[in-house]
């Protein structure tokens, strides 16, 4: 197969892909044939997670990428990044100087896909439902600054906040704030299985085998009223077991495009070919990977153990040997491209140093080697995860200070076990809900954090997070954001490892690939079309 690589540069601050050599999205798909997109994301309904596609429960990049096609939100992140813009809303904004009262006016003639009209009371119902259900995924915490939701007539919704929150418009652009039909979605329980209804640009037909979603067919919603231009009639999202199987399907023409998660070897091969049948789109991303700790577990309860791991792990070697140019070392939970980033871990620990790590353990009276098991998911973040954890094991064991084993499990098993505190140390990834430093800190450190972490720092929760949210100019919030990052580097409830790029490989006849993912890894299927690339 012939290939060419397209590199999309970033703008300073928020990362924005720029359309390059992929054709115009205006041509669209006029033949009604589905554009087929491959993914290795696994979608499973289980006893622990029976409602994977309920907006009040879903909280991972894969399920959110299904919801974003089908469930409409008041606001949406714009095509070229930046501040959120109205979607189901005609207009939204703070109506007070303290960023505590936020009002939205709905678009006229909004309807669910089944034709039922949407009113302000439906929006209130949807938001209140997610807040009341408090699903154990922790997604409801995104709405934690809401005090009450008020309606005025059929078209106006007013959010009264407990405290100032300059990031609130971003939160209204996330699927947990999606508008659902009260006649379909029970206020007191989650909706099990893979049925999904909304007012977004597409309707969904799910193909399910053995409680797993193997194909999701998105068909253009004729009742859609919103800000998005839909450039195709139908898109199919098809699940594959691994990157090799997905790549083979692209080679054979069974799919038109593949996205997350391609293997590092696959990306290197695609990059090396220079012809024109397949475009590899290389764009900046905001994905991070990190180790998380159950700080109540005896093995890592001592801060010195966690600090010693931070002192030993060599991020540079990890990136170069496993991911190459597809990632870069990360020394904070906040990526380097986000306003408010600080290299707090490098500032505290510098380069890897076994002698310093040994000194930390000795001063704390910790007997070495410290025995640990690092847990990772085998099927959620790509095939390179195992290799990454094998290298982490080697680095820690080679220090002589640790005796580490590793253990992998599929996401359907891994995530519930992690939430129940079954793992002392485990690897996770984070794709931001929205591109702001707050979303790399609060979800890990605030009350009701999505990890279920027992770590609680009163200064972070009671002072610094609220303080940072009061400031609309995010650069002016850097002081409190930096202080949070410095505390994390000292206490190490999480240990950041690397920040990654993101890639799309597509048949050359598919247009709109430059915008099919934004920097938050949001899948924007409405951008895709068929036409002549140029």
TrEMBL record:
Its main location: other. Coiled coil: none annotated. This is ABC transporter substrate-binding protein. Keywords: Signal, Transport. It comes from the Bacteria. InterPro entries: Peptide/Ni-bd (IPR030678), SBP_5 (IPR039424), SBP_5_dom (IPR000914). Gene3D superfamilies: Dipeptide-binding Protein, Domain 1, Dipeptide-binding Protein, Domain 3, Periplasmic binding protein-like II. Residues 83-449 form the Solute-binding protein family domain. Belongs to the bacterial solute-binding protein 5 family. Residues 1-20 form the signal peptide. It is found in: Cell envelope. The keyword Lipid biosynthesis does not apply.
């Amino acid at each position: 197969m012939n290939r060419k690589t397209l590199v999309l540069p970033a703008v300073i601050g928020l990362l924005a892909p720029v359309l390059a050599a992929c054709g115009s999205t205006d041509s669209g798909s006029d033949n009604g044939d589905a554009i087929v997109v491959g993914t290795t994301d696994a979608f499973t309904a289980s006893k622990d997670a029976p409602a994977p596609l309920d907006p009040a429960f879903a909280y991972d990049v894969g399920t959110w990428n299904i919801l974003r096609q089908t469930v409409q939100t008041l606001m949406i992140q714009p095509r070229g990044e930046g501040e959120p813009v109205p979607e189901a809303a005609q207009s939204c904004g703070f109506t007070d100087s303290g960023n505590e009262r936020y009002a939205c006016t709905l678009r006229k003639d909004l309807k669910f896909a089944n034709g039922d009209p949407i009113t302000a009371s439906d929006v209130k119902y949807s938001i209140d439902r997610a807040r009341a259900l408090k699903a154990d995924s922790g997604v409801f915490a995104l709405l934690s600054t809401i005090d009450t939701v008020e309606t005025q007539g059929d078209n106006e919704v007013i959010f009264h906040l407990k405290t100032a929150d300059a990031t609130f418009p971003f939160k209204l652009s996330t699927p947990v704030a999606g508008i659902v039909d009260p006649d379909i979605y029970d206020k007191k329980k989650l909706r099990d299985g893979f049925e999904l209804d909304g007012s977004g640009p597409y309707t969904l037909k799910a193909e399910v085998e053995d409680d797993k979603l193997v194909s999701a067919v998105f068909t253009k919603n004729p009742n859609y009223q919103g800000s998005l231009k839909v450039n195709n009639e139908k898109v199919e999202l098809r699940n594959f077991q691994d990157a090799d199987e997905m790549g083979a399907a692209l080679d054979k023409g069974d799919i038109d495009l593949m996205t997350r998660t391609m293997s590092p070897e696959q990306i290197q091969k695609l990059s090396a070919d220079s012809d024109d049948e397949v475009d590899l789109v290389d764009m900046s991303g905001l994905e991070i990977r990190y180790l998380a700790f159950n700080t109540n577990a005896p093995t890592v309860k001592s801060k010195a153990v966690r600090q010693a791991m931070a002192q030993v792990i060599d991020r540079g070697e990890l990136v170069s040997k496993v991911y190459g140019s597809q990632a870069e070392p990360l020394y904070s939970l906040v990526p380097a491209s986000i306003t408010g980033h600080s290299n707090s871990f490098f500032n505290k620990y510098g380069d890897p140093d076994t002698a310093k790590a040994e000194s930390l353990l000795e001063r704390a009276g910790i007997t070495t080697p410290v025995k640990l098991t690092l847990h990772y998911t085998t099927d959620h973040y790509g095939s390179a995860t195992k290799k990454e954890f094998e290298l982490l094991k080697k680095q820690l064991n080679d220090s002589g200070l640790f005796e580490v084993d590793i253990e992998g499990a599929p996401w359907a098993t891994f995530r519930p076990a992690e939430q129940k505190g079954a793992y002392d140390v485990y690897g996770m990834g984070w794709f931001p809900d929205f591109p702001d430093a707050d979303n790399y800190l609060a979800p890990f450190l605030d009350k009701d954090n999505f990890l279920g972490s027992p770590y609680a720092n009163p200064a972070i929760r009671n002072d610094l997070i609220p303080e940072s949210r009061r400031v609309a100019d995010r650069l002016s919030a850097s002081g409190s954001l930096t202080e949070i990052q410095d505390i994390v580097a000292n206490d190490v409830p999480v240990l950041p490892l690397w920040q990654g790029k993101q890639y799309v490989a597509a048949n050359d006849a598919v247009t709109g690939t430059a915008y099919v993912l934004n920097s938050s890894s949001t899948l924007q299927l409405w951008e895709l079309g068929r036409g002549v690339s140029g």
